[in-house]
Amino acid sequence: MAYTIHSAAVIGAGVMGAAIAAHLANVGIPSLLLDIVPENAKDRNSIARTGLEKTLKSRPASFYSKRGAQLVTIGNIEDDLEKLAQVDWIIEAVVERPDIKQQLYNKIEKVLQPHTIISSNTSGLPAHLLIEGRSEQFRQHFLITHFFNPVRYMRLLELVPTVDTDPALLQFMRIFGTEKLGKGIVICKDTPNFIANRLGVYVSLNTIQHALNEGYSVNEVDTILGTSMGRPKSAVFRTADLSGLDTLMHVANNLYKNAPDDEQRETFRIPPIVQQIIDKGWLGEKSGQGFYKRVKGPDGASAILELNLQTLEYEPQTKQRFASLGAARRLDTPAQKIKAVLQGDDRASHLARETTAAALTYAANRAQEIAESVVDIDNALRWGFNFELGNFELWDVLLQEPALLAQIFPEQELPELVRRVQEKGQGTFYITGNGQKQFFDFHTDTYQPVPTTENVISLSTFKAGPITQGQGVIKDNGSASLIDLGDGIACLEFHTKMNSIDEGIIEMMRYAVEDGAKQFRALVINNEAPDFSAGANLFLVLMGARQGAWDMLEGAISGLQQAHQLLKYSSLPVVVAPRGRALGGGCEIILHAHHTRALAESYIGLVEVGVGLIPAGGGSKEYLLRMGAGVESQKDGKGNGPFTPARRAFETIAVATVSTSAVEAQELRFLRKTDAITVNPETLLRDAKADAIKLAEAKAAGTWQPAQPQQLLLPGTGARLVLEQQIEGMLLTGKVSEHDAVVGRHLAHVLTGGDCSPITPVSEQYVLDLERAAFLSLCGMEKTQERIQYTLETGKTLRN
């Protein structure tokens, strides 16, 4: 049958259930959020109501925007059971007890419709156990959909079918999960705790046991096994705190009970000292303390203490320094960093080698039991635990370094699957053949193409291809590249550090618009780095200011302004496709483009005040227009007079507001309502190219025209004085510093139009000139230079 999901119900309003309902709302799917009726309660929906309220307050935020909560309807499973007949998908997220789940399924089955999909969010209970005694229809439409916490941010979604699950349903959920929910989908076999938790919890408990046996401290372990080993900074103990020590215990106990033949079964026994911590109620972040505890000192400053695993007392963290970690930090790729640590001869290297050997051996021994391919295992660890390399990708690093492999496995026989790769394969689990990445298929001992999302395109693939095939790099100047994506579409890619905007990027923007119009139908601006752009190159700004190179600085700012104006008025349709952070100059590129296709997790804002500056690449001007300062907007009443747009722009820019999602960026008007949002990073470039093709076709049909120059109505001196009074009030109450006030006055001067008349329109160039003058004036101030230097050194803002 054909499956569709236009509405859903989530049963169980705990942390996971409520967060699943929130993410459904994020992608536009209305849902019922149901839970039990508490005894003697006046509010029969109080549990679901509390779950939704907690989710609205959660940090990090579960909703893209709090307005999304309007799509969640609360209720209870007694009064609202019949409503389940009206939804397309029922997600069960109740307590991890088979008997309770079975009782719930009895009720669901009474109202179930033939088309309804049923799934459980269990983190480890066997799927075949859950469907015992259910009807054929129920079994065919049932599978496990295991989301990871926090649901909005964790990409992994494990799908676990049973032998009775309709294959068409599994295929539908794979596509739906990828395209609509934005998840990375992994198909798991019906084994205890599936893939990610099976391997991840083994790694955690094995590491904790090493720490206890060999006297490593909590912070020492997390420092060693963090970013230098290709893992998140939270590493082991901090990750346990974030997910909850009770969750770790639950998964471990489930594995110990349900995996009796696992040769590493004893590893899943919770160490007595950890059980004591759990018994004390020290469950991690949710209880305020676990392996770490945040406290406030006498001066009000916050500090994080670590738990001494011998005494169970909290102590100040000690700075950990190891030569191998220092060597790793100087390297670029995850593989290089990991090798540097593993090859070292210090205490960090010793722990890294021991835990890596255990993790890789366990993964190789379990692979064929728990997964259909090594690709699924690697994806599960990368998407579920934010590892930079999966276990079999790391195996390949070692298999290509025989000396290192022998150092990690000095006398131990390699796992059978690894020996098969050496004897029957080409020596590694992954190879590149015929321009495709392939993996060793343990079912056939042959190499097969790594599965990809349908029609996904990647800049790395285009850059690798020969230009003679009509695709590839057209031009590269070191800071940016222009790449032919085929179909008459080009892509401008940045590749400076943090994609900060320098002269090379400005040069390539000009080339892409001016020369690109002769070769292409439309332009996409996109890169596959974690962040779109951190803005202007602050180091060059600081050096220019300290050297008094004012003509150079003014020329650079003017060049950036004119490059952005070229984008705005280009006859070549321009689509910007940001992901991650698009700050300062990165935001200004978005503001000047014809259309934006943003990743849902895009954090966009004009943040220049944080370093003592104002937006000067046209950002102040364009944001005024977005707020309704254009003459045409004033004519049709949308601007509400010249002061309102200036005030609104000031209120956003003066506090360096950054959207927490692409949806919120639309609410803040960094994005237009007509701009589009993609939830899966893998499909962002594909979707942006499709948008560019549509604009190109509209241009060819005469239904798309380049932008026309705009004039602005700005309120002038009187409005500036009003904003300055607000600044003085904040200064008097200590809400801003003296230099914050100086920056605020410059910003108010620009946004109100300087000495202009509130009834006489001004040109865009007039506002650009105001931006540039304010920027240069602030650059010459010592406190701004101090702020820039501090940010460059620490990545943080200085309130001097």
Overview of the molecule:
Strand 6 (142-147) and strand 7 form a beta hairpin. The protein has an eight-stranded mixed sheet. 45% of the residues lie in helices and 14% in strands. It is α/β, with parallel strands linked by helices. The radius of gyration is 28 Å and the shape is globular. It folds into three domains: 8-187, NAD(P)-binding Rossmann-like Domain (Rossmann fold, 3-Layer(aba) Sandwich); 196-449, N-(1-d-carboxylethyl)-l-norvaline Dehydrogenase, domain 2, CATH 1.10.1040; 459-614 and 656-708, 2-enoyl-CoA Hydratase, Chain A, domain 1 (Alpha-Beta Complex), CATH 3.90.226.
How much helicity do the residues have? 40-55%
Question: Which class of secondary structure composition applies to the elements?
Answer: alpha/beta
In CATH's first tier, which class of the largest domain applies? Answer: Mainly Alpha
Tell me the CATH architecture of the largest domain. Answer: Orthogonal Bundle
What proportion strand?
5-15%
Total discrete domains: 3
- Principal-axes geometry comes out as globular
Overall mean pLDDT stands at: 95
Q: What is the straight-line distance between the termini?
A: 65 Å
- In terms of quaternary structure, the protein is single chain
Largest sheet: 8 strands, mixed
Strand line-up across the major sheet: 3-2-1-4-5-6-7-8
**Count of DSSP strands:** 25
Number of helices: 33
CATH topology tier name of the largest domain: N-(1-d-carboxylethyl)-l-norvaline Dehydrogenase, domain 2
GO molecular function: (3S)-3-hydroxyacyl-CoA dehydrogenase (NAD+) activity; NAD+ binding
Protein name: Enoyl-CoA hydratase
Organism: Dictyobacter arantiisoli
Family: Belongs to the 3-hydroxyacyl-CoA dehydrogenase family.
